[in-house]
Design brief:
The protein is α/β, with parallel strands linked by helices and 515 residues long. It contains 20 helices and eleven strands.
């Protein structure tokens, strides 16, 4: 989504920090401009073109803001300057990408999907939320007013690391009364940088009265998150409180990477562990970072081949990206789908592996599963939103090849992935049924005809024989090839027994009167 400004210092840029936090719960790259795009000094053209390049060439499944050569996570972004071209910043998180002569993407920072389900949009947000900023002489009456119905949630902006004045027991009492009656209070810092931590006594007290720590979340993202969580009517209050304190969309830090298991003996650490531990601390040198991009895919592939979930878990703790591609563009998910290990596939999907990445042969993980007849893996990928994105003619050619070889299982695999073997046509207009008729594949023909019968029963289409570019039906092809039994079966399916008998009936010899 691109949002160009039309006036100097457009209100769109003023609201961008709120928009970035709000749409995170609804893949978007928003391009904002300080000056109109038609202004001679506008930053709009650079932001717009760079946004197109980022959206079209990099797999970053997030809501992001592209501004002044930085790609920022939308729900971590704040506006820090209303007069500079460097108007936005992400104080508690480095940019996802920095644009110069080269585009350097920090793939480790990308927050990837963590569930096995298709993309959905949650449109409903609760409006009964407010923002309360603590200041030294705020009264208990003011706090009480902010917490009264219909308010269901409050973002509390406190001092420093999440503190209130130590002598304000009256405010603490109001907060406790509100949380006791079900109002959710979400604590975030008034500072741009840093996080809410229980360093001081008042921080502990706030936690004891039921105030939830927002860690390093921005106030804008906190409001959006609170509105989203409160709108989930299928969650009870304890679930809402738990989800509010969890990192849902990368809006707050969730701690350091999970360390590897500590119960392993020293001699159990292998070369892979040693290399991974070294790569964990790589931040500066571009050469070492590039080395990680080469080695991590190889180590992940090795763990997938050995079905080693523990090794995958350790590599994740060392910072491995499960969507990282090797020299052929293949990911660990490509390999796991080809091997058909459902446990490994499910683990990779739950830890951010993308189902949409193509290798240099234009093959996705779904194609790997289909062409290795991994039925359970195909179903799992489809639940996660995978689809056949090859050209229709290419899929049709593969279906025709499978039909010609009598490979019913492959046809079923393609059908489970979303292809329609009954209507797919190759570049010559031939369907899989034409291919089966040409090579006398009775089993394939019976399967394809059963699909047509199902479609017709549902009222989705009439049963008529398909015709290729030469005007030939599968019946014509079978008869021309001398496959009489198959031709009769097809004729009976499309036209019934009566027309079949008429088709076989020999013409009577002409009578003398007719001569």
């Amino acid at each position: 989504m691109f949002v160009p400004s039309t006036t100097p210092r457009s209100p769109l840029t003023e609201r961008a920090r709120y928009g970035g936090g709000r749409v995170m719960f609804i893949v978007i790259i928003a391009a904002f401009f300080q000056l109109p795009v038609f202004d001679l000094r506008s930053d709009g053209s650079d932001n717009f073109v760079t946004s197109l390049l980022m959206a079209g060439n990099y797999c970053i499944p997030e809501v992001t803001i592209l501004f002044h050569n930085k790609l920022l996570r939308g729900n971590r972004t704040v506006k820090v300057d209303c007069e500079s071209f460097a108007a936005f910043d992400s104080p508690n998180m480095p940019p996802l990408a920095v644009v110069g002569i080269d585009i350097n993407v920090s793939f480790r920072q990308i927050f990837r999907p963590r569930s096995i389900e298709k993309f959905t949009v949650h449109l409903q947000l609760d409006e009964n939320v407010s923002l309360l900023r603590i200041f030294p002489n705020i009264t208990a009456d003011t706090v009480r007013t902010f917490l009264q119905p219909p308010i269901r949630g409050v973002v509390l902006q406190t001092y420093g690391a999440g503190n209130l004045p130590g002598n304000r027991s009256d405010i603490m009492a109001e907060l406790k009364a509100a949380t006791d009656r079900g109002v959710i209070v979400f604590n975030c810092s008034q500072c741009f940088k840093g996080s809410v931590t229980a360093v001081y006594q008042t921080g502990h007290v706030l936690s004891q009265v039921g105030v939830i720590s927002g860690n390093d979340i921005t106030p804008e993202a906190a409001l959006a998150k609170l509105s989203y969580v409160l709108s989930k009517d299928d969650w009870d209050l304890s679930t809402k409180r738990m989800m509010l304190g969890a990192n849902l969309r990368g809006e707050m830090s969730s701690g350091p990477p999970k360390p590897p298991r500590k119960n392993r003996a020293a001699d159990e650490w292998d070369l892979v562990d040693a290399v991974a531990r070294t790569l964990l601390h790589v931040n500066g040198s571009q050469e070492l970072t590039a080395l990680g991009g080469i080695l991590f895919p190889a180590m992940l592939g090795n763990a997938v081949v050995r079905s080693d979930l523990n090794k995958l878990d350790e590599l994740k703790g060392f910072g491995a990206d499960f969507s990282a591609q090797n020299a052929d563009g293949r990911t660990a998910l490509h390999l796991a789908c080809a091997l058909g290990d459902v446990r490994i596939v499910r683990y990779l999907l739950l830890n951010g592996a993308s189902v949409h990445i193509k290798d240099r042969f234009d093959r996705t993980p779904l194609i790997e599963a289909v062409e290795n007849d991994r039925k359970d893996v195909v179903a799992l990928l489809r639940r996660c939103g995978a689809h056949l994105n090859s050209p229709a003619k290419h899929v049709a050619q593969q279906l025709c090849n499978s039909a010609a070889k009598g490979n019913v299982l492959r046809l079923k695999s393609y059908a489970s992935a979303g292809a329609d073997p009954t209507t797919a046509k190759d570049m010559y207009g031939r369907t899989p049924l034409h291919a089966a008729a040409l090579t006398n594949q009775l089993d394939v023909a019976e399967y394809l005809l059963s699909l047509q019968t199902t479609v017709s029963t549902l009222g989705l289409a009439e049963i008529t024989p398909p015709i290729d570019l030469m005007g030939a039906t599968p019946i014509d092809v079978a008869r021309a090839a001398g496959h009489t039994s198959l031709a009769d079966m097809l004729h009976r399916h499309f036209y019934g027994d009566e027309r079949l008998q008429n088709h076989h009936k020999k013409p009577e010899p002409p009578q003398p009167d007719d001569l």
